[in-house]
Amino acid sequence: MKKYSQLSKAFAAGATTGLVLLTIVSLTSCNKNGGKTAKVQAPAGWHLVWNDEFNGKEIDTTKWDFQIGTGSQYGLVGWGNNELQYYRKENASVKDGNLVLEARKENYEGMSYTSARLRTVKDDGTELFTKTYGRIEARIKMPTGNGIWPAFWLLPATTDYGVWASSGEIDILEAKGRLPNRVYGTVHFGQAWPGNKYTGGMYKFPSGETIADYHVYSLEWEPGLLRWLVDGNKYYETSQWWSLGAGESEPYAYPAPYDKPFYILLNFALGGNYDGVVAPEDSDLPAQMLVDWVRVYDKDEAYATEVKRPTPERDETKFKSFETADGRNFIFDSKLSKAVCEGKNAGMSSNENMDVKERVWYFLALSDFGGKAVSSAEGEGRRVKITNPGNQNYSVQLIQHLPVAKGYSYKIQFDAKASAARKIAVKLGGDADNSWAVYSPEYYPELTTDSQHFSYFFTMENDTDPTARLEFNLGLDTNDVWIGNVSVTQEEL
Which residues pair with 198 in a beta bridge? Predict the structure, then answer.
């Protein structure tokens, strides 16, 4: 990955060996509960701007607020991840210089487990601490076992770019207790769910070390750069992300969404989708996540300005060989004047006729999924009349295969309307030979009885696929759909 700001010479020298040089700086660790003076090790090139050493007798509520419950108050039952715990204030404490988050096996408010979750903002929006750019790190010791999911992470203080994940999320640390020799760092971005994307890395500890030991987990966040470290060892960095707002056709200016303030979270979840919704063993509980300290630094020198999204590695050789319909549009027959399989929908199975990958439109009503429909050319496009919408959005489809090359950005555009207000689903992805990979975010345009022009963008992050498929998925609704003026063009960001 390319780097867009110049680090200090001392730090750069450390980075070449995978280690960060440290400077010892004596600082008073302020704590309303009578915290002690602590000697904080500041990485070379950085200076401390916020910290909690947990040296007092209680959690400092000028720095942390408790999140309580199952997430249902935010419309996120199970915190959006099918988690098994109820978060309680009583499960968090300060003891022996550590923040202690304790998970317990106990029935409470309909849940079988309790645990704790803290963050540096309040439910009423009061910001106790937020940060844009910096080095954010914590020294943490975690328990092991099935269903154990401790985390140290960041969420946006505002939704300037839209709801999750348009405004971003940065996971500095996530651990799976059943895999104690590794941890993960992840960045979430893109569009609102389910159009979200993510990328990240994994760190494997040296032999003999696990998450059950104290380790320092760090994120270095600069304009256009995110870097993850464990004990000063860099294991992942990226400059590749984007944010696209609801109804927008172009992404926000880079480095959005990672140019806004974020707040810090610490939590100890149980079960959840992250590791297959595995419940913890009763014998492993109670279990404690211990946080020795949390520290935030700023760079000694100024952060870079006017950074640009780096051009991803491109498959230029194959891209140059791909044929377009008119010099730009990779879609042939943009008006959908013809569609293979028209009128044969009644008995079509999910595999029939899909071994042919010509640059033509395919009309599919998949009886395997309850779809039944007919289509016909109408004006400058094609109308699909649906008599049985099926049980999946792909029960009724219009598809064309086209080539997409790794590292290139594309804009998908089309006109559409419906006999009554409804949604459709649009995406570009692979076939069975590419494990049905999804290349673009899935897009859900809201159709009305008036023809509207829709467009959205994506960057091909997967390997080049010369027979990718653009899908208009029309199932789950019986209202007619009309589509025309379809194009897929390569665009520069």
Answer: 188
Distance CA 360, CA 357 (A): 8
* Short-list 258, 250, 255, 256, CA closest to 459: 250
Which residues have C-beta within 8 Å of that of residue 120, sequence separation ≥ 6? 63, 64, 65, 127, 128, 129, 130, 263, 264, 265
Neighbours of 380 (CB within 10 A): 14
Joined tokens for residue 295 = 């520290």
Locus of tokens 């760090």: 218
> What CA–CA distance (Å, rounded) separates 63 from 51?
9
- Sign, CA dihedral 150-152-153-158, equals positive
Tens of pLDDT, residues 328-341: 999 999 999 999 97
CA distance 236 to 115: 30
| φ/ψ (deg, to 5) at 98 | -125, 145
Q: Which residue from 232, 260, 308 is spatially nearest to 17, judged by alpha carbons?
A: 232
Question: What are 103's two structure tokens?
Answer: 């998970």
| pTM metric for this prediction | 0.77
Residue that the structure tokens 């098994």 belong to: 84
Three-state DSSP at 1 gives coil
| Residue that has been written with the tokens 């799976």 in this structure | 176
- Strand-pair partners of 197: 189
Q: How far apart are CA 443 and CA 456, in angstroms?
A: 8
Q: Which two tokens stand for residue 87?
A: 């978060």
4 and 222 Cβ atoms separated by less than 8 Å = yes
Residues 433, 435: Cα–Cα separation, whole Å: 6
Report the C-alpha gap between 299 and 284 in whole angstroms. 41
Give the list of residues 6+ apart from residue 321 with CB closer than 8 angstroms, or none: none
Domains and CATH numbers, the chain: 9-299 (2.60.120.200), 316-491 (2.60.120.260)
Tokens matching residue 373: 């429909």
Q: Active-site residues: which are they?
A: 169, 174
Task: For residue 30, give every residue at least 6 positions away whose Cβ sits within 8 Å of its Cβ, in sequence order, or none.
Answer: none
Q: Which residue has the tokens 């969404």?
A: 257
- Token pair of 476, please? 């789950």
Which pLDDT tens digit goes with each residue over 29-77?
Answer: 444 444 444 578 789 999 999 999 999 999 999 999 999 999 999 999 9
Tokens 């211990």, residue? 290
Where on the phi/psi map is residue 134: left (φ > 0), alpha (ψ -120 to 50), or beta?
Answer: left
Q: Do the Cβ atoms of 101 and 266 come closer than 8 Å? A: yes
For the segment 377-413, what is each residue's pLDDT rounded down to a tens digit?
Answer: 999 999 999 999 999 999 999 999 999 999 999 999 9
